[in-house]
């Protein structure tokens, strides 16, 4: 068994020091002139929602048949859209195309509606590489927060079939097991700034259409861990890069730790990297500097052969 897992379980509960890195532009890019690209905007990948079942594709100019990363936005499953995907300029400079997708929000559909949208978006991207100018055989997923949940879902679910399997999956500060989110926050000695996940008004409760605290079965059904447990034994997972802020007061770092440990526990060869970022919060700190996105671009460049 070959495992690249770089964090002991005890570290999920450890106190972290301050980050040291030079401040820079936000994750859109390095600053300076925006690299040239061809934009295919508002492409419909399904017909359940005119504004949410659409995606944009950015193809770097001067790069023949580039690999593609699928950016999945966050927003608690109830807000956000495909505009301004993280790291766009840096991906363009690295010769990697970007697909940025919308999916139905929780006021339009409850789970598994978002799963259905995700699978349809990837199916559309697999079918249209030649027409739109990218290599659909070299595809990865990348998402933060709610998008991190969906990126892990894509990396896991699509590995059930070698014909759909991704080359890599990047996951930033995701909610993974809704029914344990409150306990996980308490375990690290923090109070959630968004309130209790178990309550009926939480983002996760809205996603499953019922209070998480009263409906653990629905919460578990929406977990990437449930999809992982259902995979065929022979399915090969893609390389994963998981990143979480040590001071996240929206989603406990133990949530991404649960994904990390579940992936590690699956039999077979795997490559899983975990980064606990000192001093970083929910998308703040290193996530707002070049630190995190630079590592993501380097990781995906290697895995996609860019």
Rounded Rg: 18 Å
Report the mean per-residue pLDDT as an integer: 91
Largest sheet: 8 strands, mixed
Give the topology string: H per helix, E per strand: EEEHEHHEHEHHHHEHEH
Q: Would you summarize the structure shown here?
A:
The chain has 306 residues and is an alpha/beta fold.
Helices and strands in order:
Layout: E1 37-44, E2 54-60, E3 68-72, H1 88-93, E4 97-101, H2 113-127, H3 129-132, E5 139-144, H4 146-157, E6 168-172, H5 181-187, H6 203-208, H7 216-221, H8 224-230, E7 240-245, H9 253-265, E8 272-277, H10 290-304
Parallel strand pairs: 3-4, 3-5, 5-6, 6-7, 7-8
Antiparallel strand pairs: 1-2, 2-4
Task: Name some characteristics of this structure.
306 residues, alpha/beta, Rossmann fold, eight-stranded mixed sheet
Describe the structure.
There is one protein chain. This protein is of the alpha/beta class. The protein has one domain: Alpha/Beta hydrolase fold, catalytic domain (Rossmann fold), CATH 3.40.50. Helix content is 30%, strand content 16%. The protein has ten helices and eight strands. It has helices spanning 88-93, 113-127, 129-132, 146-157, 181-187, 203-208, 216-221, 224-230, 253-265, 290-304, and strands spanning 37-44, 54-60, 68-72, 97-101, 139-144, 168-172, 240-245, 272-277. The protein has an eight-stranded mixed sheet, sandwiched between helices. Residues 1-11 and 13-27 have low confidence and may be disordered.
């Amino acid at each position: 068994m070959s495992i690249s897992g770089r964090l002991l379980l005890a570290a999920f509960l450890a106190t972290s020091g301050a980050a040291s890195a030079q401040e820079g532009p936000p994750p859109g890019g390095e600053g300076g002139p925006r690299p040239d690209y061809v934009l295919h905007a508002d492409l419909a990948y399904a017909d359940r929602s005119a504004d949410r079942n659409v995606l944009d594709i950015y193809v770097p100019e001067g790069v023949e048949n580039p690999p593609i990363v699928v950016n999945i936005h966050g927003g608690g499953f109830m807000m956000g859209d495909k505009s301004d995907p993280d790291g766009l300029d840096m991906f363009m400079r690295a010769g990697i195309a970007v697909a940025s997708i919308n999916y139905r929000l929780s006021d339009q559909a409850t789970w598994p509606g978002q799963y259905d949208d995700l699978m349809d978006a990837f199916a559309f991207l697999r079918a249209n590489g030649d027409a739109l100018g990218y290599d659909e055989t070299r595809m990865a997923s990348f998402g933060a927060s709610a998008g991190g949940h969906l990126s892990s879902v894509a990396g896991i679910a699509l590995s059930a079939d070698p014909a759909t399997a991704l080359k890599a999956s990047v996951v930033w500060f995701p909610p993974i097991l809704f029914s344990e989110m409150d306990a996980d926050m308490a375990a690290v000695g923090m109070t959630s700034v968004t309130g209790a996940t178990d309550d009926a008004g939480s983002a996760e409760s809205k996603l499953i259409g019922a209070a998480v605290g009263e409906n653990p079965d629905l919460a578990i059904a929406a977990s990437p861990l449930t999809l992982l447990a259902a995979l065929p034994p022979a399915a090969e997972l893609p390389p994963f890069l998981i990143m979480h802020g040590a001071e996240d007061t929206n989603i406990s770092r133990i949530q991404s730790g649960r994904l990390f440990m579940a992936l590690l526990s699956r039999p077979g060869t795997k490559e899983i990297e975990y980064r606990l970022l000192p001093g970083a919060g929910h998308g703040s700190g290193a996530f707002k500097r070049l630190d995190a996105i630079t590592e993501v671009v380097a990781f995906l460049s290697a895995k996609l052969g860019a």
